[in-house]
């Protein structure tokens, strides 16, 4: 992103002045999890597809009896120096990493610090059967001790069959990089995850664009969409959607129900911390879109006649 000198000065002034609502006044509550609570079941004991949000873009997905973790950033702060500032709002996780069950796959959208975390990978690596990443991201994982044979790299529009699931990479409008130099040296993407009966879209990070309609035409409709809705600003709308655009993106990909992600864990923009769910919920209601904003650690089954409708963030 390139900004004029005037815009940079204004942004610097806003950061210095601060916003008292950029962070919650107290740690956000979490729903405690245990292995037996991670999976949703019907009244007759049959397992349902489900998602459990861990804050920001980290989502545990259960589909066709398989456990997938999407962008599992479970660290303290999205920074190369996590001991300094910008701590996680909830202060703790719903379940400790060591207590998680074996993971059939971990899927990453790109390599930014708020999505790909060294400490998390080091703790998860013994639990993961397979890693799926966009082009170039494998080098990070290999450097951190992951067996290259467990990593699968992919370009946009590639389709992968994995243990009965169909995975596909798709475009996103964003960028990549973990250093001051070397920006865009790796790819960023969104993901489609199709089971026998359920179809899920995971946006990763993206500005709004025509790629969402193309994804919907190729792979929709989706039973559930997990779409970014936070850390936005009009000055960088090209790489992060505004909440109203998040609702439009869900319509473009033909989502039947949506969960807004990329918020609720860290402060990476100037807006109020609760603005993402507030604005997205208002836009969804106006358009008759089914939206659910689960609490951190709350397991949500899908498809469902009724989704959690609590405005807990208020």
UniProtKB/TrEMBL annotation:
Source organism superkingdom: Bacteria
Reaction equation(s) it catalyzes: 3',5'-cyclic CMP + H2O = CMP + H(+); 3',5'-cyclic UMP + H2O = UMP + H(+)
Pfam family, one: Lactamase_B_2
Gene3D superfamilies, per database record: Ribonuclease Z/Hydroxyacylglutathione hydrolase-like
Xref: InterPro entries: Metallo-B-lactamas, NAPE-PLD, RibonucZ/Hydroxyglut_hydro
Annotated signal sequence range: none
UniProt domain Metallo-beta-lactamase: residue ranges: 70-263
Function: Counteracts the endogenous Pycsar antiviral defense system. Phosphodiesterase that enables metal-dependent hydrolysis of host cyclic nucleotide Pycsar defense signals such as cCMP and cUMP.
Full protein name: MBL fold metallo-hydrolase
The species this protein was found in: Cohnella suwonensis
Lineage, uppermost ranks: Bacteria, Bacillati, Bacillota, Bacilli, Bacillales
């Amino acid at each position: 992103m390139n900004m004029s000198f005037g815009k940079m000065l204004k942004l610097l002034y806003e950061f210095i002045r601060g916003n008292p609502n950029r962070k919650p006044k107290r740690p956000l509550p979490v729903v405690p999890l245990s292995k037996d609570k991670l999976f949703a079941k019907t009244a007759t004991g049959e397992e349902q597809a489900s998602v459990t949000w861990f804050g920001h873009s980290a989502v545990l997905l259960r589909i066709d009896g398989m456990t997938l973790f999407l962008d599992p950033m479970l660290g303290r702060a999205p920074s190369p120096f996590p001991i300094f500032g910008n701590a996680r709002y909830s202060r703790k996780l719903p379940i400790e990493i060591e207590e998680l069950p074996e993971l059939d796959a971990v899927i990453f959208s790109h390599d930014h610090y708020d999505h790909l975390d060294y400490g998390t990978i080091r703790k998860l690596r013994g639990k993961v059967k397979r890693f799926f990443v966009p082009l170039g991201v494998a080098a990070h994982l290999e450097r951190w001790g992951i067996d290259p044979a467990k990593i699968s790299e992919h370009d946009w529009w590639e389709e992968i069959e994995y243990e009965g699931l169909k995975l596909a990479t798709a475009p996103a409008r964003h960028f990549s990089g973990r250093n001051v130099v070397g920006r865009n040296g790796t790819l960023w993407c969104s993901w489609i995850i199709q089971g026998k009966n359920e179809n899920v879209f995971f946006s990763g990070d993206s500005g709004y664009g025509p790629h969402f309609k193309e994804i919907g035409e190729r792979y929709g409709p989706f039973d559930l969409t997990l779409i970014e809705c936070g850390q936005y600003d009009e000055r960088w709308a090209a790489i992060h959607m505004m909440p109203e655009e998040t609702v439009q993106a869900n319509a473009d990909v033909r989502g039947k129900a949506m969960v807004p992600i990329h918020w609720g864990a860290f402060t990476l923009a100037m807006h109020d911390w609760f603005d993402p769910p507030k604005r997205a919920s208002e836009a969804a209601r106006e358009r008759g879109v089914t939206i659910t904003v689960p609490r951190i650690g709350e397991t949500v089954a899908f498809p469902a006649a009724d989704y959690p409708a609590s405005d807990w963030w208020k």
